[in-house]
Write a structure and sequence with these properties.
254 residues, alpha+beta, 8-stranded antiparallel beta sheet, 9 helices, 39% helix, globular
């Protein structure tokens, strides 16, 4: 279970570059050791800084306003006393949450302030990889339902075109081993995916990962990686706007 903090640390300033220690402190044998909290805080601040830069870039280039939240960097009951992954997520702002709450009603719209209750764009780091993704978790069932209803109303082609522009990314479902490679997706393959995908039960992810083990670790720690992650996150914005419920994409009860 991923758990976010509502009290964010100060983002790291200046240029961002990952280091061996960012990955090392998340390894299984250290993930529950509080002695590595300070090291994990450094990593969390890097991810938070990148997310805030992405927020500003997205607002400037597309006009889309997003909020930012990050995960805990210390072992806690909410993360099963292990920090094996750190993330920062961009998701709908307070005004959009208020609008969604009015649409859903108070009973269905509980705890909308949590990142995992909303479709989002995510930057994450784990011991073996860096990852950029668009995600709709099971708790954000209304965004998953909104996406499926929009596809039903408009047809598969618009969704397919958005995914087709994301070469290098993979469409994934929950913890299933199967994957749908973007850039080479047929309508039949997407029909297959939607036949399995159930909002509220499955996690939908469109993700790109960069390995960070063995010789690949040096590449993950090289200069310019942060810029690559930000550019790839930007590529996901059209898919986010298509899928997540908003005034411009309101298909939830269509």
């Amino acid at each position: 279970m991923n758990f976010e903090s509502t009290t964010e640390p100060r983002p790291l300033g200046g240029s961002i570059r990952f280091e061996e220690g960012d990955f090392h402190a998340l390894e299984d044998r250290l993930a529950g050791d509080p002695q590595f909290n300070d090291r994990r805080l450094v990593t969390r601040r890097k991810l938070l800084a990148l997310a805030k830069r992405a927020k500003a870039d997205i607002a400037a280039s597309t006009g889309l306003a997003l909020d930012v939240r990050s995960s805990l960097h210390h072992p806690h009951a909410f993360n099963h006393n292990k920090v094996g992954r750190l993330w920062s997520s961009l998701f709908r702002v307070k005004a959009e949450k208020s609008r969604l709450k009015k649409t859903l009603g108070a009973d269905l719209a509980k705890d909308l302030d949590s990142a995992h209750k909303n479709a989002g764009l995510t930057l994450s780091l784990q011991p073996d990889a860096l990852r950029v993704a668009f995600e709709i978790g099971p708790e954000a069932w209304y965004d998953g339902q909104n996406m499926k209803k929009r596809i039903a109303a408009e047809g598969l082609e618009a969704w397919r075109q958005l995914l087709d522009e994301l070469d290098g990314f993979r469409l994934r479902m929950h913890d299933w081993k199967g994957e749908w490679r973007c850039g080479d997706l047929s309508l039949d393959r997407l029909t297959e995916y939607l036949g399995y995908y159930v909002p509220g039960e499955h996690r939908l992810a469109v993700e790109r990962t960069w390995p960070a083990t063995g010789p690949a670790r040096a590449a993950a720690c090289s200069e310019g990686v942060a810029d690559v992650l930000l550019a790839e996150l930007q590529r996901l914005v059209p898919l986010y706007r298509f899928s997540a419920w908003s005034k411009e994409s309101d298909f939830l009860f269509a």
